[in-house]
Amino acid sequence: MPEMMLNKSSNGTTITTIITTTTTCAKSEQSLESLQQLCEQLNEKISAFLRAEPETELVRRVQCQTAISLQTVHDALERYSPDELAISFNGGKDCLVLLIIFLAGLAHPTSRRKRASQPLLNAVYVMSAHPFPEVDAFVDVCVPGYHLDLARYALPMKKAFETYLREKPGVKAIFVGTRRTDPHGEFLTHFDKTDHGWPEFMRVHPVIDWQYQEVWAFLRALKIPYCSLYDKGYTSLGGTTDTHPNPALEKVATAGGSQFRPAYELVEDEQERLGRDR
């Protein structure tokens, strides 16, 4: 039997991962089984959330957005096999919502058959030039917790994707957690090929139309662990040189310095990037 190891996320919630000490073949089989189990568990969790009677208008909107995003994942799985898909994951709130919905979508029977020999999920992390230790620590927890085959690149975005696709030539489409209010997100759809001059792949945007409050309502309703910086007033994560706690969440200053309310207490989409210098 495999040994069970509990990894704690930076906000104290546990993510269970399974560590085996047997042969390479047994490890691969166990990892595949573990990924399937995780997908099924998340699918059941999301299905229960979608069936529940919404207590607020916000929850009703989140249910609608979740159903649309899940359908986008299913559409992607109709076009591509799981090994042709990857997810861009940097530990932020938006790509975390995307990851959970993507994993839930992989529980579909057709996807399970296509994924017969894939024990890990293709993933790429384009790192900031000045990463937060808290972000990297959270990503480190997510790699085994969500069964990610994560490639990390401390490179500009375009160069990072060029390198990734050269190393993973079978990948044809990449899930991206861009939302409509993000820079360059205004005119995107659920499926967009990369622009001229970029490495060629299909960008899939299941959460493109989610609002800021909806992202947090989803994560909190499903009790999904997230990066600890969000509890310190950060609402949009870049690097240490251009990202600060959001001033809209600042409490009354004390002798010990400014304190900030958690990110999920922010209401307005337009205020999300007030803590970013660019």
Task: Please characterize this protein's 3D structure.
The protein has 278 residues and is of the alpha/beta class. The chain has 7 helices and 8 strands, in the order ββααβααβαβαβββα. Helix 1 packs across helix 3 (93-105), helix 2 (57-79) packs across helix 3 and helix 3 packs across helix 7. The model is unreliable at 1-28 (pLDDT under 50).
What's a quick, concise take on this entry?
With 278 residues, the protein is α/β, with parallel strands linked by helices.
Name some characteristics of this structure:
FMN; globular; 278 residues; single chain; alpha/beta; disordered N terminus
Topology of this protein?
Elements: E1 3-8, E2 14-19, H1 24-51, H2 57-79, E3 85-88, H3 93-105, H4 109-114, E4 121-126, H5 133-145, E5 148-153, H6 157-167, E6 173-175, E7 191-193, E8 202-204, H7 212-221
Parallel strand pairs: 3-4, 3-6, 4-5, 6-8
Antiparallel strand pairs: 1-2, 7-8
Helix pairs in contact: 1-3, 2-3, 2-7, 3-7
> Class by helix and strand content?
alpha/beta
Global geometry: globular
Radius of gyration from the alpha-carbon trace, in angstroms: 19 Å
The quaternary organization reads as: single chain
Beta-strand segment tally: 8
Give the ordered list of helices and strands. Answer: EEHHEHHEHEHEEEH
What average pLDDT do the residues reach? 87
The parts where pLDDT drops under 50 for at least 5 residues are 1-28
Strand order of the biggest β-sheet: 5-4-3-6-8-7
The fraction of residues assigned to DSSP E strands is 5-15%
N→C terminal distance: 50 Å
What is the percent of helical residues?
25-40%
Number of helices: 7
- Main sheet? 6 strands, mixed
